[in-house]
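[job 0412] stage=complex_fold ligand=tryptophan status=START
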Amino acid sequence: MRVVSGMRPTGKLHLGHYFGVIRNWVKLQEEHECYFFIADWHALTTAYKNTKELRKNIREVMIDWLALGLDPNKSVLFIQSLVKEHAELCLLFGMLTPKSWLELNPTYKDLKYNLLRLSDLEKNFKEKLESNIEEFIKLVPFEISNPEKFREHLLENLTQTMIEALFEGEIEPEILKKLNVSKRDFYETDTFGFLGYPVLQTADILVYKGEAVPVGEDQLPHIELSREIARRFNRLYGKVFPEPKALLTETPKIPGTDGRKMSKSYGNAVFFADTKEEVEKKVMKMFTDPQKIRKNDPGRPEICPVFSWHKLFTQDRELVERIERDCRTGKLGCVECKRILLKHLEEFLEPIRERRKELEKRIEEIEEVFYENSKKARGEAQKTMEEVRKAMNLP
Ligand code: TRP
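[job 0412] stage=complex_fold status=DONE, emitting structure tokens
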């Protein structure tokens, strides 16, 4: 079975990446023909404005992948943007993908929804501005030859400035929180590239005729779209592609240190690149059952992120059961409980951290490996593209 999956290079990997994705990939590479790539073009669908960190982020992902057990001799580990055929196939798929399919994509709908709320804010501000704009105009020390146009222009620009300032935190950061529009991404991603995100993703998979796509649940609508695009292509030009299936494996959810989903942007993640001291600090600050205030208060392990982590890192099942019991009865305090966790967490993290350090020293060699693997992937992609061009009667 041919397996294809990708990951956007957003920086250093954390425990959430491992339990959600990488652990699964490491298993798959033992039994299947796997293509795993760093989706740097996909990163640009939201972060196109600032690409300063892109190269660095790609290197971080390379190091983390290898440190976590992905093996370039077992899987093809490569970089999306080095295989130009992804772009060619994306362009061709774009021709036959109805716009409405993309507009129905939940990620896109979320974006639109946020933009809508933002546009309320904009409208509000514009109205206020409008009623005072004449005062502004009086300040201009020149004769205005086209007052109507100038007025419009001023309104538009001041409104934009306000929105930007809002996103930069220059004025009332609270407003954004209230609107629940926390990322400036939302404001900047109403682009062709973002709308076409799932088309590129489809090309990523089908350029290798991928049959199985190990992804998180959030990606299901994208894979469904890939199936529809494959079906449509095959119907129009003859069968070239398989219909890829999502491979949803049981993945334990690892909450962040504050109990929410682990995410870099929430500041609740433990990274593989964190030092021992950083990990210790994060663990000792972890949220626990808010009703367990004093050491001997009874706690509720089922809502405690520290206990969720015990289940993943504390191998001794009996000890886990004892922790659960002693927490409930109030015999075990949170500080003590965290100390136990830390010991087991470190047993897991330490060897990875060491491997990471070694790999960091050999970064040039590692880049070379990814470049070589990209050539290999490209060879495969080129074969598919020949078939595609033939099916579509392209020269
Ligand atoms: N969209 C995926 C994510 O954000 C990343 C991705 C890009 C991907 N291309 C892909 C996943 C192709 C699977 C197959 O997680």
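The mean pLDDT is 92.
[job 0412] exit 0
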